[in-house]
TrEMBL record:
It comes from the Bacteria. It catalyses: beta-D-fructose 1,6-bisphosphate = D-glyceraldehyde 3-phosphate + dihydroxyacetone phosphate. Belongs to the class I fructose-bisphosphate aldolase family. NCBIfam families: FrucBisAld_I. Its EC number is 4.1.2.13. GO terms for molecular function: fructose-bisphosphate aldolase activity. It comes from Arsenicitalea aurantiaca. Transmembrane segments: none annotated. This is Probable fructose-bisphosphate aldolase class 1. GO terms for biological process: glycolytic process.
């Protein structure tokens, strides 16, 4: 069996990143509704099959895919298990293991992620199905009274317990503390985001150390440092890159093999541009890459539009965004390349 560090290094191999295809049923129902489709088992299967059979994207630019429980055990229309499709492309299957974020008692709009009960048994089952990594998302809200120290500590503690259980099962934990840019009211400054992100990361790594988590056998999936989506002044690409790098360098240990950013609160192009700007500066102790959902799938979803006859053009759209983010992970993305391709 490959070591945790070997799996983590494979997931952040140069020029590759992670496809987040782990939308919950309510989330994918919203995505489908945006193009006039109902969410049902057959359509969800067809959509994921379209992505996983996109040979160019999966072989050249994607290192791992985060799946749901449904998708991990699902098969394509011809009966081929999705896990087989991923193996043929040398892509590591992963699994979302949290049960979602729920309102935290006594707080103002804050949430706590649940799902630790029974996780040890679930992880053993996922490992038997070939899952090489897992993901748990903790959500940190910014408003006039939040985040509270209690909420940050509670989510960090849950992330650490999850990560420890993953490593016990031989699964690489992807630790995702997300400071929301698109939460409510969403009018905070980039400096406020930087302060909260720094406090969150500091607390998360304190809890990971206390839990005995091997930092060389995990990955971090953080937010970028952004202004809220309703903030008056929108920071430049360079400012986002600089402040994000500053925060990571201050609070993320060099022992972590890689950082795979989430794309929340950004357009497709913004997520690509910010990642590329960080890598263009260089001199970081970790591989910086992507673990994107919407920013990889938006155009492909609309091109597919629920029709199997649209697989080929949708796969081309997916491959294009995957290639652009591959370039960004190397610091080589340019807007003119994106538009010309």
């Amino acid at each position: 069996m490959a070591s945790l560090n070997a799996i983590a290094q494979k997931l952040v191999a140069p020029g590759k990143g992670i496809l987040a295809a782990d939308e919950s049923e309510p989330t994918i129902a919203k995505r489908f509704a945006s193009i006039g489709l109902d969410s049902n088992l057959e359509l969800r299967r067809d959509y994921r099959e379209m992505l996983f059979r996109a040979t160019d994207a999966m072989t050249n630019y994607i290192s791992g895919v985060i799946l749901t429980e449904e998708t991990l055990e699902q098969s394509a229309m011809d009966g081929t298990p999705f896990r087989t499709l991923l193996a043929e492309a040398d892509v590591v299957p992963g699994i979302k293991v949290d049960r979602g974020a729920f309102p935290m008692p006594g707080s103002d709009g804050e949430k706590i992620t649940e799902g630790l009960d029974g996780l040890r048994q679930r992880l053993a089952h996922y490992a038997s199905l070939g899952a090489g990594f897992a993901k748990w998302r903790g959500v940190i809200t910014i408003n006039e009274t939040a985040p509270t120290r209690n909420n940050i500590r509670a989510n960090a503690h849950a992330l650490a317990r999850y990560a420890s259980l993953c490593q016990e099962a031989g699964i690489v934990p992807v630790v995702e503390p997300e400071v929301l840019a698109d939460g409510e009211p969403g009018d905070h400054s980039i400096q406020r985001c930087q302060d909260v992100t720094g406090e969150t990361l500091e607390t998360v790594f304190k809890e990971l150390r206390l839990a005995g988590v091997d930092l060389s056998g995990m990955l971090l999936k953080p937010n970028m440092v952004l202004a809220g989506h309703r903030a008056g002044d929108k920071p430049s690409v360079d400012e986002v890159a600089r402040k994000t790098r500053e925060t990571l360098l201050q609070f993320v240990p060099a022992a972590v093999p890689g950082i795979a950013f989430l794309s929340g609160g950004q357009t497709d192009e913004e997520a690509t541009a910010h990642l590329s700007a960080m890598n263009e500066i260089g001199n970081m102790p970790w591989h910086l890459t992507f673990s994107y959902g919407r920013a990889l799938q938006n155009v492909a979803l609309r091109t597919w539009n629920g029709k199997r006859e649209n697989f080929a053009p949708a796969q081309e759209a997916f491959a294009h965004r995957a290639r652009m983010n591959s370039l960004a992970s190397l610091g080589q993305w340019r807007r003119d390349i994106d538009l010309a391709a």
